């Protein structure tokens, strides 16, 4: 493995831990992480895998497993997913309580977007694929990316009533899994996000989008 890949894995892991912590996961055991540990993981001395639990047990999804695929996964994706949801496999996950993040060194092609959607529709498994290079920096921190905030589901009805929106289909769209911000936020089809943009005349204004397959 090249030095560049090792550097990308190290820096992207720092961003990933930050995102997991923001999502309510207990990350203390993984926060002290050095470049030398990345090299040890790359040669198989230790595991890249991360298993974290949410500090709020009332959330339906209380666990997250982060899996690293350092070899090409594109051609083996459906075998990989089958093992994840096979209850007879000791390394399987329960879709009702656990979400999965997969870190790749290859591009997140259409097959990964389709696989993520298929798993949600068929098994209710929340799975996200990221190329490590896209997490070297948090995509939300880019100067051209306005703040995105997920609207709690219990507020959807009141929001639509106040804004005279008859159906979520009337809202602009953000694509499930395909949009990098939707992926970082863990959006699911039907979720609504608020985007706060600067305005030359009004200072700031909010727009809303709905996540669609």
From TrEMBL:
UniProt-listed Pfam families: RNA_pol_Rpb5_C (PF01191)
Transcription recorded as keyword: yes
Keywords: Transcription
GO MF assignments: DNA binding; DNA-directed RNA polymerase activity
A GO cellular component entry from the record: RNA polymerase I complex
Record GO biological process: transcription by RNA polymerase II; transcription elongation by RNA polymerase I; tRNA transcription by RNA polymerase III
Domain annotation RNA polymerase subunit H/Rpb5 C-terminal: ranges: 140-211
Keyword Transcription: yes
PANTHER family named among the record's database cross-references: DNA-DIRECTED RNA POLYMERASES I, II, AND III SUBUNIT RPABC1 (PTHR10535:SF0)
Protein name from the UniProt record: RNA polymerase subunit H/Rpb5 C-terminal domain-containing protein
Organism ancestry: unclassified sequences, metagenomes, organismal metagenomes
